[in-house]
Design a protein that fits this description.
- It holds the Pfam family DUF484.
- This protein has a domain of 152 residues: GAF domain (Beta-Lactamase), CATH 3.30.450.
- Helices cover 44% and strands 12% of the residues.
- The chain contains 7 helices and 5 strands, in the order ααααββαβαββα.
- It has a 5-stranded mixed beta sheet.
- β4 and β5 form a beta hairpin.
- α3 runs antiparallel to α4 and α3 packs parallel to α7.
- The protein starts with 17 loop residues before the first helix and ends with a helix.
Length: 234
């Protein structure tokens, strides 16, 4: 025997009355303590009902709410930035350890080309040295630059961050087309040719002028120390 179809009651529930709200709050005295965000949503009563007197309380409360929202936004931005900085610092330390474990100039060239992109979340990394009085090691992955190339590229600085740029084939070779932003870091190993550690990203804002350069400088010092130990071993 066929069952009768059941009808679904789609009638919306009646709105909550003011009396019900008041009664609920009386029975739950800690409700606003448990939900402090609601206080910022409530409209406080005016102390004056019309007339020539202006109630500045409303204006002050409105300003305080705006300041609270601004402070909340600043706090969230600070937390996000701190987490990003910690992640970058951890990545840099891991990259430094990989470089120290390379063991030779050949190993250094391999770590820069193969390991640094993944460790530092970039798309390409290269290393090279200027031609000078001392012969450069002939090692795959180590690029050769003409004399004064670093001065023309970096000027007097040690680190250059470029956003919304195109990659220089002299620095990035065939991978220059991948580069939309880059970091160029001077290498100045004692009594050895000057060099350049370069990293490029597809992201136009992967590197930009507002970033700090301390960690890049730290990584350059690690690379310089390794170069001084391994230069003649290959």
């Amino acid at each position: 025997m066929a069952r009768k179809s059941e009808t679904v009651d789609t009638t919306p529930p009646p709105p909550v009355s003011d009396e019900q709200v008041v009664s609920y709050l009386k029975d739950h005295a800690n409700f606003l303590l448990d939900h402090p965000d609601l206080l910022g949503k409530l409209a406080p009563p005016s102390r004056f009902n019309g007339g020539p007197v202006v109630d500045l309380q409303q204006h002050v409360i409105s300003r305080l709410r705006e300041e609270m929202e601004h402070l909340r936004g600043c706090a969230e931005h600070l937390i996000t930035t701190s987490r990003s900085n910690m992640s970058t610092q951890t990545r840099t330390h891991e990259a430094a350890l990989a470089i120290l474990e390379a063991g030779s100039m050949t190993g250094l060239a391999r770590v820069v080309a193969e390991d640094l992109p993944a460790l530092l979340d970039v798309d390409i990394a290269t290393i090279g040295f200027e031609e000078g009085d001392r012969p450069l090691p002939i090692i795959p992955g180590i690029r050769t630059f003409p004399r004064d190339f670093l001065e023309q590229t970096l000027g007097a600085g040690d680190v250059m961050l470029r956003s919304s740029t195109t990659g220089d084939p002299a620095i990035f070779g065939d991978g220059a087309e991948l580069v939309a932003s880059c970091a160029l870091v001077r290498l100045d190993p004692k009594d050895l040719p000057n060099g350049l550690l370069a990293m490029g990203s597809r992201n136009e804002r992967g590197f930009h002028g507002g970033q700090g350069t301390e960690l890049l400088g730290f990584l350059a010092r690690v690379v310089e120390d390794c170069i001084q130990r391994w230069w003649l071993e290959d």
